[in-house]
Design goal:
This protein is mostly helical and 414 residues long. It has helices at 7-39, 43-71, 75-90, 98-127, 133-155, 163-187, 201-206, 211-216, 218-237, 241-248, 254-279, 281-301, 305-333, 343-365, 386-405; strands at residues 371-373, 379-381.
């Protein structure tokens, strides 16, 4: 029988999950646009920003996830973290250079990763169990798509070529994030059985990196290896996605094309998460790979509206359903009472390794990209379809790695 979680849990999960993803969407998809439009950033600048943020996110999650285990609390880290996270977002309204953007992105990522990557994700692991993990991940993995819809819809009313528009955006997102943190004091409930770890902080930090722990939890670590390859594929194109739609394809109305694809992908993701509970990991991840490869192929070979819509739908549905399946498998494999300590190794697979390799590969693919001359005489690069062939190649590698590592390590229903 599936464990019931209650309305307060779902409300807390929805508002913290959604607002956290809205903030991450602004960082992951629009900071690139921000420095591209305001400071005429090159691919190397975008890659450097993503890489610096990935390193910060990984180190923060490793440390703060372990600290939250040590003190036996998630609520305080989530609420206070969201409050300061929101204030750091507001600071971007006053930034005037690429370098300062990168520095403040790392500062913002510290607070965001403390609140979301470390505390929120550990809280989800604490509150779920094997009877409802797929359902939780299905809803949680839908949050990035809904966040994209919210951000896209809200940004349609702004002229992103003006600094005034970005100032308004940063104030709106920052204030909303801070408000959610305040609300968390009244909504969040730590898991009833959550207790402080009896180990020293040093041992708590080192726990998930011990070879003996990796050996005893081989399914978890093999899943993380595959998760890293999956996210490398995503990070090859994601930093350049909106620029590709708007500048390369010339779709000034890309939101009207992309938003319906995101909405349909969100619906698919909600129902897809439950397949994990029924079918297990291997049989639910293979359709994800098929969706991604098909979407990438369509986007590589076509540039007109309807095919781009179909390719975007398959690409986003594959991305989010993949996050759902991998997320459920990872949470199911984390030892009980160790959720915070394992958020660090999770973020290495989700953010750190992909954030170093994916954008760098994308920047290398775009090293000889065409350029356009802006109205002020400066030039900007144009992402080309090579990003889709590169990301498809990584997914093929994922398929091979899955076959080699996971066939005998997936859960018992496979």
């Amino acid at each position: 029988m599936q464990t019931k979680l209650g309305k307060k849990f779902w409300i807390s999960m929805l508002i913290f999950g959604l607002m956290g993803q809205v903030a991450w969407v602004v960082e992951n998809m629009y900071f690139n646009v921000f420095i591209y439009k305001m400071f005429h950033a090159e691919p190397a600048d975008i890659s450097a920003m993503v890489m610096a943020s990935a390193v910060t996110a990984a180190l923060t999650t490793i440390i703060m996830g372990a600290v939250s285990d040590k003190v036996g609390r998630r609520k305080a880290f989530m609420s206070i973290g969201y409050i300061i996270w929101g204030l750091s977002i507001i600071s971007f309204a006053y930034i005037k250079s690429i370098m300062l953007t990168i520095v403040m992105d790392c500062v913002m990522t510290y607070f965001g990763s403390t609140a979301n990557d470390a505390a929120y994700n550990a809280w989800l692991t604490d509150r779920g169990d094997s009877t409802n993990r797929g359902k939780i991940e299905g809803v949680n993995s839908m949050m990035p798509l809904i966040a994209i819809l919210v951000v896209f819809g809200g940004f349609m009313s702004f002229d992103l070529d003006t600094h005034e528009a970005w100032t308004s955006i940063y104030y709106i997102i920052g204030i909303a994030t801070t408000f959610i943190g305040i609300a968390g004091w009244f909504l969040i409930e730590d898991a009833p059985g959550l207790q402080k770890t009896g180990e020293s902080l040093g041992n708590t930090l080192a726990y998930s990196f011990r070879p003996s722990v990796a050996k005893d939890n081989s399914r978890l670590y093999l899943t993380l290896v595959n998760f890293a390859v999956f996210n490398i594929s995503i990070q090859v194109f994601m930093p350049y996605l909106l620029i590709y739609y708007e500048k390369t394809l010339g779709m000034d109305n890309y939101v009207l094309i992309f938003a319906p694809a995101i909405l349909l992908a969100a619906v698919i993701t909600v129902f897809y998460g439950r397949l994990y509970d029924r079918l297990g990991f291997m049989r639910s991840i293979m359709p994800v790979i098929v969706m991604l490869i098909t979407g990438y192929a369509i986007l590589y070979f076509t540039t007109s509206t309807i095919p781009v819509f179909i390719g975007s739908l398959l690409m986003m549905a594959g991305y989010l359903t993949g996050m759902s399946v991998f997320g459920a498998m990872i949470r199911d494999s984390i030892p009980e009472g160790r959720a915070g300590q394992f958020q660090g190794v999770r973020i290495i697979g989700q953010v750190f390794v992909p954030g170093l390799i994916g954008p760098a590969l994308g920047a290398w693919i775009l090293r000889d990209a065409d350029v356009i001359v802006n109205g002020d005489g400066t030039t900007s690069f144009l992402p080309d379809r090579g990003i889709w062939s590169a990301t498809a190649a990584v997914i093929v590698i994922l398929f091979a790695v899955l076959m080699m590592t996971m066939r005998n390590k997936s859960n018992g229903s496979d």
